[in-house]
Amino acid sequence: MECKKKGSCQLLSKIATNEQHGENSSYFDGWKAYDNDPFHPIRNPNGVIQMGLAENQLSFDMMEEWIRKHPKASICTSEGLNMFKYIANFQDYHGWADFKNALARFMGKIRGDRVSFDPDRIVLAGGATGASEIIMFCLADSGDAFLVPTPYYPAFDRDLKWRTGVQLLPVICNSSNNFMITKEALEEAYENAQKSNIKVKGVIIANPSNPLGTTVDKETQKMLVNFINDKQIHLVCDEIYSATVFRRPNFVSIAEIIQETECNRDLIHIIYSLSKDMGLPGFRVGVVYSYNDGVVNCGRKMSSFGLVSSQTQHLLASMLSDDEFIDEFLKENAKRIAERHFTFTKGLEEAGIKCLNSNAGLFCWMDLRPLLKEQTFDAEMELWRQIITDVKLNVSPGFSFHCVEPGWFRVCFANMDRETLDIALKRIKNFVKGAGKKKERKNSGKRIIFELVFQNEEDVTMKKHEFTKSYHANVMSPHSPISQSQGQDLIMIIKHDH
Ligand SMILES: Cc1ncc(COP(=O)(O)O)c(C=O)c1O
């Protein structure tokens, strides 16, 4: 918490000033850089392009068309105004039955109707953000811990920890197996917690993963269920990106896994939201879906703190109940994400940049390890600052996702139009080309070794100056891309003639 006047923090609570809000993370720094100099194709074509926001802006046209065709669904049209008084007054924290029924069916549809959801188990919350906090409040006390595989969504640090006092302990995953969660890593994190006398209350995962853009396979999920069942701790699955899966392997929900795997269902909870799959983060529709009656009952009371507005429930109840529209929307949306992903990763490939092979999400996990000066987080930070200030792209460094390997960056591709994406790709290509040339210069420069023989110190200074001048004049043309300040590429062995 920033306190403008010295000492004013003392006036606030410990929670308000405990710095756990996570906004000091470099993930948010990039947003600030964008805010100060935002790209606009005409007004600010050299501005920073925002590639740090996992937003889905690819399918608004479909939604707008539906809204235009269904004026009754909105209370702000002459066709829908008759519902105004009722909707404006609706405030039941159980949520509107029509909306919860439609939402439960929608959640089933995304999972290919292989599972069904009971509307009475749905607890509404202000986005997945509100939902995650509710679940933490229900499951853990301050000081207790949840295990979370790395790399993970940076705002988990704020959403899960800040106001609850819960700790997050990393389960280390790395690129050797494409960042998959292993039993060994889980056991190690659990044992480390026990050695430190920290009570582990559960494991939380995001499936599909943010930032990896990969789905968690069946076997891994079964292993997770067995792990938490053995330890009698909870498993929370954030499935906010479930309908962003655009190619095989298909998404498998934890709801399907527990149909096949024996476990105590009281330990299983799902977090969901319409922010990504429907591209509606501003509507703040979040869900806790728990198989545990106690969590449903308590969570529902807590949802009073962040209700989904009745106007939103009313509109979406109609939209989500329109099967034909929803089927088409989900199909087309996934197709558009797939196309975006293909265009973007192909462009990166042309620039020589590889990404983790992914099948979901609104971003790529870009491997810039070859561009690091050295394999350290300092070098990652240096490269990231260069990408923001020189390339003018706000991408998010792996460090802010608690990735243990330096050099990985998350880049979002669905929060902009195609033209902006092309400009971003062009900037990346130019940057990589420039970085490659620099490397070449460094290597070739080092090969140019001159031996100069001098009489005395004065002679050294004078001849060095003359030689450098004539070297630049003769060896480099005025249009040489090698800047004049790069004289260090020229190596002189200075020998004194005694
Ligand atoms: C994994 C994950 N969980 C939760 C959220 C928060 O979503 P919401 O906008 O619904 O609060 C995000 C948003 O980026 C996310 O990536």
TrEMBL record:
Highest rank taxon of the organism: Eukaryota
GO molecular function: 1-aminocyclopropane-1-carboxylate synthase activity
Segments forming domain Aminotransferase class I/classII large: 49-428
Annotated keywords: Pyridoxal phosphate
Family: Belongs to the class-I pyridoxal-phosphate-dependent aminotransferase family.
PANTHER family: 1-AMINOCYCLOPROPANE-1-CARBOXYLATE SYNTHASE-LIKE PROTEIN 1, BIFUNCTIONAL ASPARTATE AMINOTRANSFERASE AND GLUTAMATE/ASPARTATE-PREPHENATE AMINOTRANSFERASE-RELATED
The name this protein goes by in its record: Aminotransferase class I/classII large domain-containing protein
Species whose genome carries this gene: Cinchona calisaya
